[in-house]
């Protein structure tokens, strides 16, 4: 074989080898970031969730934060998380995130009364657990949410902590005791009477079983709670009640009163609060 032909074969072999190597994924390379939108955990159209997996994740070092939206249990969607996603990624860079929808109460049809929303969070967490290995993330889960979402995060974390190995909760201006919330004003009385199919007097068991404060005890998970002192939708007394109960059982917690803020905070405030939340979690889980 002459030298020119040998050179041609050599070049062809090098080219083929390079193409073959490039076409095979290298298992040693870090995983790329992935978004999985509108995943389902049940047959209802509201039983869906979005997944945001970070680059470089692995089973040992990538915990999961599950975000639950607000909306008085009658409105809102998982898209609420998109407002906070840049800040969450800034202060929790090692985390994967899931944002869930749940069935909402309908005043017209009177469908999806409590405990539908509680049950949907359970179903969502169970589905998430079944996907952890395929997502290549750890089984350490945090819950977070604001308003009704904060209530559902606390309720699951306190009442169903074993479903999902829940490590901690971050709650913004959450209802915590539905019996005392009922008496806040006409709107809370009207809404809770519908959603819980009665009053604290006529249906006390459901009010108790749907209130996170009922399930506080010595093994309750660490919690950080933010509440504005000018909140006229969910009174700050709801978080004060919870903080007092957590203190009685010496549960690791932090209750931060946000001066001159109502039901929802400005962007600069959220920036500061999420930084405080990241510090609290590093010190307590």
From TrEMBL:
Residues 1-20 form the signal peptide. Keywords: Hydrolase, Signal. Pfam families: BD-FAE (PF20434). GO terms for molecular function: hydrolase activity. Residues 50-246 form the BD-FAE-like domain. Transmembrane segments: none annotated. InterPro entries: AB_hydrolase_fold, BD-FAE-like_dom, GDXG_lipolytic_enzyme. This is Prolyl oligopeptidase family protein. It comes from Algoriphagus faecimaris.
């Amino acid at each position: 074989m002459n030298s020119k032909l040998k050179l041609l074969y050599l070049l062809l072999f090098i080219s083929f080898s390079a193409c073959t190597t490039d076409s095979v994924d290298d298992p040693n390379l870090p995983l790329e970031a992935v978004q999985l939108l509108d995943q389902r955990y049940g047959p209802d159209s509201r039983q869906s969730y979005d997944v945001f997996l970070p680059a470089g994740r692995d089973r040992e070092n990538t915990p999961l934060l599950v975000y639950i939206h607000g909306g008085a249990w009658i409105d809102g969607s998982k898209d609420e998380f998109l407002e906070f996603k840049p800040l969450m990624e800034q202060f929790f860079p090692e985390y994967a995130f899931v944002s869930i929808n749940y069935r909402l109460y309908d005043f017209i049809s009177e469908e999806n009364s409590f405990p539908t929303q509680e049950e949907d969070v359970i179903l969502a967490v169970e589905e998430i657990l079944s996907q952890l290995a395929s997502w290549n993330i750890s089984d350490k889960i945090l819950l977070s949410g604001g308003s009704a979402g904060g209530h559902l995060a606390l309720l699951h974390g306190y009442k169903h902590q074993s479903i999902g190995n829940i490590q901690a909760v971050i709650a913004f201006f959450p209802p915590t005791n539905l019996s005392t919330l009922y008496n806040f004003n006409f709107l809370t009385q009207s809404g809770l009477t519908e959603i819980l199919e009665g009053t604290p007097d006529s249906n006390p068991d459901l009010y108790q079983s749907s209130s996170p404060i009922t399930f506080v005890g010595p093994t309750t998970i660490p919690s950080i709670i933010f509440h504005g002192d000018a909140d006229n939708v969910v009174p700050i007394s709801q978080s004060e009640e919870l903080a007092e109960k957590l203190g009685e059982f010496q549960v690791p917690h932090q209750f931060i009163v946000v001066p001159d803020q109502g039901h929802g905070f400005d962007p600069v405030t959220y920036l500061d609060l999420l930084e405080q939340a990241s510090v609290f979690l590093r010190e307590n889980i």
